[in-house]
């Protein structure tokens, strides 16, 4: 599958969201996240957004204090993944209004719902922001 | 539970917000309280999950999810509650989310979800269907996939595009878990390729892209469909995926390449999207590199990438170059400046790529140039990258027996320079290569000795542990090829300098052994070749006597120049000696002068020999009590020699002329023997040499060591003998004590041989020599003679080879390349690349079956399954679904048959061939047999299919 996992990590290296598309137990996840975070956070703005790690390629992008990291297999198109990250951030922006770390923390389930609408089995399924957000807005309406 | 506590709970329950705030109060520095807080929250959550109110439960679940995904808390206890919640409409989204985050294929309650999933998949509310699909795409295991295939099949035709897309992508997992589902769903999946909705096409292409990774050959018949998408679609996501599929198909079918190359170039010229550009470039470089037009267009784009400010594009540009490098070297050479500039890029990844590229373009003509550039960069860069550079230089230059190296003098000096680079940590590799080159390339040995000398005489290098391995090689080389040395005395001093105490024992032992060889060489020269020796011994001695011994090492480089004239390799010594002597005068007159000169010189050489012996004695004397066995042994050897020489030889030299006596006495005989032993050449040994040794009769390798007791009894005897052997050396008390203990242990374990393995572990240190002893004592020296033969044969081959391969490569400005000794069978041929067999994959087998056109198969397999379903509780529902599904399916397949695509003609044709076999397959009811039969069909199918495809394609 193209996308193996998606991580959102803050500047301090704390994971704020973790979505895996292949099974890994908690120990493996924690180790993997630690290694990736260490690698990516050590890099600066002038360096490219791709890091190879184990069998994965990590495509990451920093928005303010938050790193969006996507682990893909070796054949995935890096630039397309960067576009995907941007789409994800724009979608969150539209929903939360200038999304920040706290939004994702306190609405973790919504962030997951958005991802579910966008990615299935590691493949990108929906790229329209309106379509991604409509079920979430419906849910908001129902609960309020 | 009564109503009150649940009311209380829902009123006073901590929300997720409360939990997060609480977590944030407990910072990581106050770790105990953080974990305490978490465990307290967990107890709360456990209690709340058992509540009767759905909202309380779902809040608890929400909190648990948070803790699970961000604090790695196991949530296995909550799985059943997740299933409970999935039935309530309000908490359904959360329940399915939790299922996809918490469940894995081993979760035992997974099957309890089947009914709920089926209900939701058939729901009229789009949202519920979508949620169920989301969850199914993550958690489906074999059972779920089998039971829900029918429902998914219906959804593949859903009028709601939104659901159809998800159902399609869900198939990736379902196919994977339950391959038979391919027979049901594949047809409809392919039909969706023709959908007008881009999202649906994108999903289908995504599925095929995943499936083609396993066995692309199965999807060749679909090439026309993909081709249509490639030409017609303008959606970048879809195009990228289709390109990926073609990247897998083209290598399998050459004519496909001709067909797709034009559309791909078209996209490349047209598109502005960098991601698509890159994908096109990658596809062209990867599998269409024989189409020059395409490669040229792609190169243009790559050049744009390389010049871009964005590091991402530069990185990808370099990466693309490295994929095309093996086939089109010119591509890199044209962009050489970019690549070299990238070596100093701010980004390590880019630097690495540039380095790999640069190494890819190395050849005989440019290796010197490239290495020079690289070493300059290595000096400037950080330790990690510096070593990366050095490592790649070493590996590229040594590849295939130093294939690219023509001027070995240059390469040896490069190795010497490398070891002086501050960050250099490649000691091991350089060590290997120095020794390897010494053995393989005869002509370069004098340079090797010169470079080694420069390394050895530098006391500063001894302080750097990373260089120790290199020094080890240098010491070995100087000892082994001492006849090339200009100044053996200096060499001995360097090998025995006080700072060698910084070396690890094993390397120090090599130093001492080398000093031994040099000493033997000096003595031999002194005794048997006075005419030769005096020239260099005298020269160096006069210098040594005037300067202090501490200065000697520093002055040594200046000694180079006076040594130059008097030094010649051993083989040519005799002739050149005459040449020099007879240079101006007649040969006869020089002979007249010789006795005079030698009598004068023997005194001074005698002094210098005495000087050497004194150095050896004073520096090595203290080491005769060393704790390290290797050092001890060698020191003893060399001291023994020194003693003997002093007693028998030098002691008398002052009274009488030693000319007559020296040749006859004992010492000179020994020296002669030693010299012969040391001057025997060591050659490289083939890796496969061991395999050539025939296994002697009666020796069973890989035998189970059940009869250890028996062997153990045999061990006893040699053990004691080896022990006494050690004892002969005057060891210090403590070491004797440990040996004594060891013997005691040995006698103890005698009674219980089962403890042998444990004992071995504890006393592994002592075991190695012991076992060696055992093989040589107890058993016939099985392999020895054959090994010897082998070595002889090898060396013979070697000699033959060196003579044969005296073909010099003509170079414009350099000297002919020296012979590099290779072994005839190739040292590393033993590792044969394993041919990758196409995976025997159930999914692709099923795909092949479907593509062969047996439309009857899907419906039959579903009807075959129907009875089990009908018997189950949800039978009624199921039958309904199948009832609505079946006619549709047949109808659709018929309508497709009518469509005038040539593909279907072929399929129909094949259907006729295949039908008897499928009929047979149908009749066998057991899954296992059917599968295996299909597999066989599938493999036969490849042969049938491959020639057929292109006809309708082109």
UniProtKB/TrEMBL annotation, chain A:
<protein>
    <recommendedName>
        <fullName>AP complex subunit sigma</fullName>
    </recommendedName>
</protein>
<comment type="similarity">
    <text>Belongs to the adaptor complexes small subunit family.</text>
</comment>
<dbReference type="InterPro" id="IPR011012">
    <property type="entry name" value="Longin-like_dom_sf"/>
</dbReference>
<keyword id="KW-0472">Membrane</keyword>
<keyword id="KW-0946">Virion</keyword>
<keyword id="KW-0813">Transport</keyword>
<feature type="domain" description="AP complex mu/sigma subunit">
    <location>
        <begin position="3"/>
        <end position="142"/>
    </location>
</feature>
<keyword id="KW-0653">Protein transport</keyword>
<dbReference type="GO" id="GO:0005737">
    <property type="term" value="C:cytoplasm"/>
</dbReference>
<dbReference type="InterPro" id="IPR022775">
    <property type="entry name" value="AP_mu_sigma_su"/>
</dbReference>
<dbReference type="Pfam" id="PF01217">
    <property type="entry name" value="Clat_adaptor_s"/>
</dbReference>
<dbReference type="InterPro" id="IPR016635">
    <property type="entry name" value="AP_complex_ssu"/>
</dbReference>
<dbReference type="GO" id="GO:0006886">
    <property type="term" value="P:intracellular protein transport"/>
</dbReference>
<dbReference type="GO" id="GO:0012505">
    <property type="term" value="C:endomembrane system"/>
</dbReference>
<keyword id="KW-0167">Capsid protein</keyword>
UniProtKB/TrEMBL annotation, chain B:
<dbReference type="Pfam" id="PF01602">
    <property type="entry name" value="Adaptin_N"/>
</dbReference>
<protein>
    <recommendedName>
        <fullName>AP-3 complex subunit delta</fullName>
    </recommendedName>
</protein>
<feature type="region of interest" description="Disordered">
    <location>
        <begin position="820"/>
        <end position="954"/>
    </location>
</feature>
<keyword id="KW-0677">Repeat</keyword>
<comment type="function">
    <text>Part of the AP-3 complex, an adaptor-related complex which seems to be clathrin-associated. The complex is associated with the Golgi region as well as more peripheral structures. It facilitates the budding of vesicles from the Golgi membrane and may be directly involved in trafficking to the vacuole. It also function in maintaining the identity of lytic vacuoles and in regulating the transition between storage and lytic vacuoles.</text>
</comment>
<dbReference type="GO" id="GO:0030123">
    <property type="term" value="C:AP-3 adaptor complex"/>
</dbReference>
<feature type="compositionally biased region" description="Basic and acidic residues">
    <location>
        <begin position="888"/>
        <end position="900"/>
    </location>
</feature>
<feature type="domain" description="Clathrin/coatomer adaptor adaptin-like N-terminal">
    <location>
        <begin position="38"/>
        <end position="497"/>
    </location>
</feature>
<keyword id="KW-0813">Transport</keyword>
<feature type="compositionally biased region" description="Basic and acidic residues">
    <location>
        <begin position="822"/>
        <end position="855"/>
    </location>
</feature>
<feature type="region of interest" description="Disordered">
    <location>
        <begin position="771"/>
        <end position="790"/>
    </location>
</feature>
<keyword id="KW-0653">Protein transport</keyword>
<dbReference type="InterPro" id="IPR011989">
    <property type="entry name" value="ARM-like"/>
</dbReference>
<comment type="similarity">
    <text>Belongs to the adaptor complexes large subunit family.</text>
</comment>
<dbReference type="InterPro" id="IPR002553">
    <property type="entry name" value="Clathrin/coatomer_adapt-like_N"/>
</dbReference>
<feature type="region of interest" description="Disordered">
    <location>
        <begin position="583"/>
        <end position="604"/>
    </location>
</feature>
<dbReference type="GO" id="GO:0006623">
    <property type="term" value="P:protein targeting to vacuole"/>
</dbReference>
<feature type="region of interest" description="Disordered">
    <location>
        <begin position="744"/>
        <end position="763"/>
    </location>
</feature>
<keyword id="KW-0472">Membrane</keyword>
<feature type="compositionally biased region" description="Basic residues">
    <location>
        <begin position="923"/>
        <end position="933"/>
    </location>
</feature>
<dbReference type="GO" id="GO:0010008">
    <property type="term" value="C:endosome membrane"/>
</dbReference>
<dbReference type="InterPro" id="IPR017105">
    <property type="entry name" value="AP3_complex_dsu"/>
</dbReference>
